[in-house]
Amino acid sequence: MKSLRKLGLFLLLLHKEGPARFGEIDALRGVAIVMMVVYHFAYDLTYFGYYQANVFVGPWRTFARITAILFVTLAGISLVISYSRLSTQVRGWYLFRKYLSRGLKLLGWGIVVSLTTWAFLGRPVIIFGILHLIGTATILVYPFLRLPRWTNLVIGIGAIASGLYLNRWPVQQPWLLLLGLRPPWLYQLDYFPLLPWLGVALLGVLAGQVLYPDGRRAFDAPDLQQWPPLQTLARLGHHSLAIYLVHQPLLFGVLTLVSLAYAGSP
């Protein structure tokens, strides 16, 4: 039983509270989780025909992009904090191995999501989604955690600008899909290529270096104990991966039951 529990903790990336964990970051990640669930619920309602809207354009698209930016930026900030803490304990390969392990776990779960949606929808609609991006960024951003702030600023802005430019190029083959070159015929539900999104992660690293130098808060923050709603958001943010993995199956299951009940009613 204990072995299964350890395996679950390993796979879901659940960690004990430590001195490098900050409630405001978990609360903001909780906000992002709530936004993500709202967006996916709107998509599910359109899929079942209960909501007539195009969630891929207009305000819904903006809402989804803000949610993703928040997730990726917080990932960059968290990498800086963890690096500041871990680099005092281990170095070299042993330090990088922790980021490699975490990145591969997220990539593994991303592949699970890809295969599940492929089996359900009958086509590969998530090849490089948000989990693939954050998992890959966790590994690729590692060398930048030691660079000066201005370097991450310049490279981050450059990556974003390059991605926005490349995304406009029409291509016929999907071989450079990870970099942002997508054929018009390749439909994707969840697509976050390295360019420009790696640049967003680097700006998150910059934010972490400014706001949490040496893994310590550089500003005064309110005590979350005084605000129960913020405590709830922080708990959601602390378990963001688990919520991400289970919320869509739950939403789809509930809406499927509603559809069956509605179809069977006189």
Determine the fraction of residues in helical runs and give it as a percent range: 55-70%
Shape category: globular
Class by alpha and beta content? mainly alpha
Main sheet: strands, sense, barrel = none
Instruction: Note the quaternary state here.
Output: single chain
Weakly predicted, low-confidence segments: none
The number of distinct β-strands equals 0
Q: What integer is the average pLDDT?
A: 90
What separation lies between the terminal Cα atoms?
Answer: 48 Å
Q: Radius of gyration from the CA trace?
A: 20 Å
- Number of helix segments? 9
Helix/strand order, N-terminal first: HHHHHHHHH
Q: How much beta, percentage-wise?
A: under 5%
Structure description:
The longest helix has 30 residues, at 92-121. This protein has 266 residues and is an all-alpha fold. The protein is built from 9 helices and no strands. Helices cover 67% and strands 0% of the residues. It starts with a helix and ends with a helix. The relative contact order is 0.16. It is globular, with a radius of gyration of 20 Å.
